[in-house]
Design a protein that fits this description.
By secondary structure, the chain is α/β, with parallel strands linked by helices. The chain has one domain: TIM Barrel, CATH 3.20.20. 34% of the residues lie in helices and 19% in strands. Helix 4 packs parallel to helix 6. The mean pLDDT is 96. Bound molecules: zinc ion (ZN) (2 copies). The site of one zinc ion (ZN) has 5 residues, from loops.
Length: 267
Amino acid sequence: MVVINRILDYHMHSTHSWDGKSSIADMCASAIDKNISEICFTEHLAVNETDPCYGFLVSDPYSADIESCRDRFESQLTIKKGLEIGEPHLQKDKILPYVADQNIDFIIGSVHNLNGDDLTLRISGRDQIKTYTPYFRELLDCVTKGDMDVIGHFDLMKRYAFDLQGMYRHGDYEELIHEILKKAIARNIGLEINTSGFRSSSLEIFPSQTILRKYKELGGEILTVGSDSHWASMIGNNIPPVYLMLKQIGFDNVFSYTQRQPEAVTI
Ligand SMILES: [Zn+2]
Ligand SMILES: [Zn+2]
């Protein structure tokens, strides 16, 4: 029997994110109920004025809530403070004060917009190539220039395009995907495995297993796993089966971050 030692959830949004529904305290309590040992809040940050989260996150109250829950749940749960930054490769001067904050443990870099448009607006009818190529190109730019610890939900476009186009054909973007993976490895940037894909119609994690296997083959090691919960009840969802899948692929660890330094945790 395979025993899972510890569960870490490294992607979640509290009411400090524009779309989060539960308080930090409620999310911590839920994590403890579910025997999760470590969580990292990754509140949305965008400096692009067209993004719905623009201007929503305020650093001081976010820090205060984290500190108060660290005191309250000290012996039961490790609580990390992170950010999910939308397009961290753009307007870097505005992002710098946030990424330079010593009290930030972990940063997810995500592409949520293309040229300021939400991804849902960039689905090109039934044409997969016109839909996914600009997305993966932007992700390559993001991982080449942005400051982040992991790439968020690598093939996120499938969340929005699947209903109209079905699953994308990996082979059509293979070169671009490999370039992204190689650049990430060269820059010590990991991949996030985001289990919210199971809640979307593709019923598949981000990134696909094909991408994860290629990452392993190219020498990639750094992985985090997150539920992308926006509700306390969803914390930890589908993380144990993902750990088992990772073991089958040949990964032995996920990573924990403290002040942006990764540390391997055996799964
Ligand atoms: Zn995201
Ligand atoms: Zn998120």
